């Protein structure tokens, strides 16, 4: 199993940082600090801590910034990094971005969005949840109070995830998908096909819509509650401020 990071997004709501950097490289350390850590740093550190030795990173917008840091990141975290180019990163949404990594998913991956600040306990929770025939396991926050923007999930204890979408009454959701998934190698081909069907239907769809396509086809997707912990998806400057508060705790 290897790590996989989706780091192709532009993150326009984080300008001026993202004028020159992809969102995954926006600093989340103390404001103004030189050589500040980034979301990508935190994620690679988590992967290394749970024993992964290889990580693939899907890059697109301002990808040259990731290429420039590749050797330094490999040395810092003791990881072998493979960069995968998304040629439509500024045109299409991330269903296509995850599909670009379809070949590495065949090795089995822990997938992390490039904008999610979270502790290593999330990866440990997913790894500990393996072993009962699951093919895809979503990290789920069942504690947070939900609103309209969150990626919400409805879970049937007997059947696994049934719905995953932002377009849902928050009161109907079991929890929020936090942007980290364990995908076993056995799921790779079916997931790739579902993702392809998703972005061919609408290039603006999310990879979570690809998960829903799988569910609609009868594929079981499981979830693992992460407990009561601090994490944030960084979409804007308010999120970035929260990310800086959280990052210093880990």
From TrEMBL:
<protein>
    <submittedName>
        <fullName>Nucleotide sugar-1-phosphate transferase</fullName>
    </submittedName>
</protein>
<dbReference type="InterPro" id="IPR050065">
    <property type="entry name" value="GlmU-like"/>
</dbReference>
<dbReference type="InterPro" id="IPR029044">
    <property type="entry name" value="Nucleotide-diphossugar_trans"/>
</dbReference>
<dbReference type="InterPro" id="IPR005835">
    <property type="entry name" value="NTP_transferase_dom"/>
</dbReference>
<feature type="domain" description="Nucleotidyl transferase">
    <location>
        <begin position="3"/>
        <end position="155"/>
    </location>
</feature>
<dbReference type="Pfam" id="PF00483">
    <property type="entry name" value="NTP_transferase"/>
</dbReference>
<dbReference type="GO" id="GO:0016740">
    <property type="term" value="F:transferase activity"/>
</dbReference>
<keyword id="KW-0808">Transferase</keyword>
<keyword id="KW-0548">Nucleotidyltransferase</keyword>
